[in-house]
Amino acid sequence: MHRFLVLLASVLLAAPAWAQTVTFGASVQVTGPVANTGRYYKDAYEFAVDKINAAGGVKIGTEQRKIALKILDNQSDVNLSVRQYVQLLAQDKVNFLLGPFASNFVLADSSIAEKSRVPMVQGGGASDQIYSRGYRYIFGTLPAASDYFGSTIEAMTKLTPRPQTVALLYADDAFDVSVAKGTRGALERAGLKTVIDARYSTNASDFSALLSRIKSGKIDAVLVAGHETEVLNFIRQAKSLDVSPKLYSFTVGVPSADFRQALGADANGASGMSAWLPTAALKDRWFGDAEAFARAWKAKFGYEPDYHAASGVATVEALVNAIEAAGSIDAQKVRDTLAKSSFDSVYGHVAFNDKGQISMPQTMIQIQNDKVVPIFAAGRFINKLDYPLGPWGDR
Amino acid sequence: MVLLLQVLVSGVLLGGLYALMALGLALVWGVLNIVNLSHGALIMLGAYATWFLYTGAHIDPFAALPIAAASLFALGYIIQRGILNLVIRGPMFNTLLITFGIEVILTYLAQLWFSADFRTINPSYAGSNHALGGLTVPYVQALAFAIDSVLTTAMWMFLLRTRTGRGIRAASQNLVAARLYGVDPKRIYALTFGLGAALAGVAGGLYGTVSQINPYIGGPLTAKSFVIAIIGGLDNPLGVIAGGLFLGVVESLTALYVGPTYRDVASFGMLVLILIARPGGLLGRTA
C-alpha cells in the first residue's frame, strides 16, 4: 500500500513533464502461447528506453525529451493486436510504433501503421511477405527469413563427408513458409538433394511419422523451420525413436537459454542460426558494447538475451536516432530519416534497404557442451562443427 | 514395410497417451454431464506437479505420478464441491462457461507462478528405446501405454464392482432412484470430478515426460480429449481406449501418406463421420 502511494504520488508529480515526452507504443505477447518469446520484446523496449532516458533521453533540436513507453498485452492474439495498435494511435496518441513478435503479427499490424502513416520499427518479424507489399512505414531489424539457412547451407557444402540428402520441414505460418521458400532455392543452387520437403501444422506435437521417414530414408541433414515447442518435441522424439541425422538445424530455439535448459544434454548437437552474438566488437552509443549489454540484461532480467532481445533494442535505438536526425517528432520526417538510418548498435550495423528491411548475415551456431558456439559465418568456419552427429546412444 | 510398421507402432503408443488424456474427460462427461473445458488445464497442472517433484524434490517422474494424481484429485474435488455443484442442475451452457472460466484462470495463474518458460521432464532414461527387428519402441511411451491400460481396466473394475463405483454409475443413469438407495449425489459428483482430475494429473505427468510443458498446452489437449471421448463413446472406459488408439493410428497414417498438415483434418473429419454413422461412439450403444 505504502509503495503504491509513493508510486501514485510520483506519477502525479511527474504529470506536467508528460508534455515533454515522446511516446512509443507497442502491442506485445506478454501472455498467451507466444509469451515465451514475446517477453524479449517487452523487456527489450523497457530496457532500452530506461537506458536512453537515463542518458538524458532523445535530443530534438536543442531540447532533451524523455521517452515514454506504452506497452499493451495482446495475449498472443493477432486480432487483438491489430485493435490495440489502432487504440495506441487513436486513443493513447502515441508518437511512434514499435513492433510485436512474429511475422504473422507484424503482417497484420503493419497495415495499421501504413494506413495511419506512422512509422513502425519492428524487430520481431522476418517474413519476406512483410516487405513485399510496397509499404513505406514499416522498418524491420530481423534479416530476411528466406536467408535464415543461408550460412548453414554454405557450411554444408564445405563439410566432409558432404551431406548427400536433405529433409526440409516447415510449419505453415508466414515466417516459416518464407524460410522454406528461400531454403528450397538455396539447397538447389548448392547442389544438395532435397528428398523430403514437408509442411506441417503449426503447434504440431507429434513428429513420429516424419522422423520415421527421415530414419528409413537415411537422410543426412534435416532443416526445420518452426516454433520452439515443435522443435522441443522434434528433438525429444528423435531421441526416443533413435533418429540421428548427421546434421540437424532449427530456425528457433538454439540461441535461447530456456530452450537449452529444457532439453539439457539432449540439446547438444542441435544447430541453428543467429544474426547476433554478444561480442565486445559490437559498439553501442548507450550500452557500450554487446558483451556489456548481455551482462546487464542477465543481471536485470535473470535470463540471457538472444537475438530477439538485441533486435528489439535496435528498433528503439533506430527510432531515437531517426527522431534526432529529423529534429522533430513529425511522423513523415521521421519516416524519411528512418529510411536513411545508418548506425552501429549492440545488435550490429542498422540500415534499411528500400523495402525497409535490414540486411544481415546469419551465423550458423551449434550447441556444444550446453553452450552456443558460433560455427560458420562470412564463408568460413569459426569453430569446429560437431559433425557427423553420432547415434544417440554414443552421445 | 518397416516404415509402415514403425508408424503404426508410434500411432498406437500415441493413441495410448491420447486415451489416458481423454479418460478423465469422458468420465466426468458421462456421469456429471459436464463437458469439462478445464480438463486440459488440469493436465497442464499435473505436468507441472510432476515436473516440480522431479526437478525440486528429485522424485522419479513415475514415482511422482501418484502424488500428482492425489493433488489433482484434491483440486478436482474442491472445484466440484465449491463451484460446479452450485450450477450442476442448470443448463449445460452454464457449466461450459464455468469450466471455460476455470481453464482461463488456471492457465494464467500458471503463467504467473511458473512463467512461460518451456519445461520438460527429462530423466536419464527418457528417450531411451528398444530396437526390435528394425522397429524402435521408446520405453517411456510404452510404459505410458501400460499405465493407461492398467488405469483404464482398474477404473472399469471400480465402476463395475465397487459400491462407490456403482453409485457413480447409478447417479448418472437415474439420479432419483440412486438417491432412494442412499447415494449422496454431492459426494459422488465431487468424487467423480476428483477422479477425472486425478486421471488428468497422471496424463499430464506422462505428457511432460514425452513432450514439453508450458502454461498454454491445455487448450489443444482439451480439444483432443473431446474428440476421443466422442469417437470412443461415454458408455465405458474401453471405448475411450478404442477412441484414443483409433485417433493415434489415423493421425499417424495421415501424416505418413497424406501429409502432416492434414492430421487435424483427419481427426476432426473422423469426429464428423462418427457422429453421423455411430453417434454413440465406436463401442457405444447406437440409439
For this entry, give a set of tags.
heterodimer; A: alpha/beta; Rossmann fold; 2 domains; 5-stranded parallel sheet; 12 helices; B: 287 residues; mainly alpha; ABC transporter involved in vitamin B12 uptake, BtuC; two-stranded antiparallel ribbon; 11 helices; globular
CATH fold name of the largest domain in chain A, please? Rossmann fold
Helix content of chain A: 25-40%
- Structurally, how many domains make up the residues of chain B? 1
Give the CATH level 1 class of the largest domain in chain A: Alpha Beta
Compute the average pLDDT of chain A: 93
The arrangement of helices and strands of chain B along the chain is HHHHEEHHHHHHH
Q: How much helix, percentage-wise, in residues of chain B? A: over 70%
Q: What is the multimeric organization of the chains shown? A: heterodimer
Query: Structural class per helix/strand content of chain B?
Result: mainly alpha
Largest sheet descriptor of chain B: 2 strands, antiparallel
CATH fold group of chain B: ABC transporter involved in vitamin B12 uptake, BtuC
Poorly predicted regions of chain B are none
Per CATH, the architecture of the largest domain in chain A is: 3-Layer(aba) Sandwich
Low-confidence stretches of chain A: none
Describe the global form of chain B.
globular
- Give the count of helical stretches of chain B: 11
CATH class value of chain B: Mainly Alpha
Question: Reading side by side through the largest sheet of chain B, how are the strands ordered?
Answer: 1-2
Please describe the biggest sheet of chain A, giving its number of strands, its sense, and whether it closes into a barrel: 5 strands, parallel
Category from helices, strands and their pairing of chain A: alpha/beta
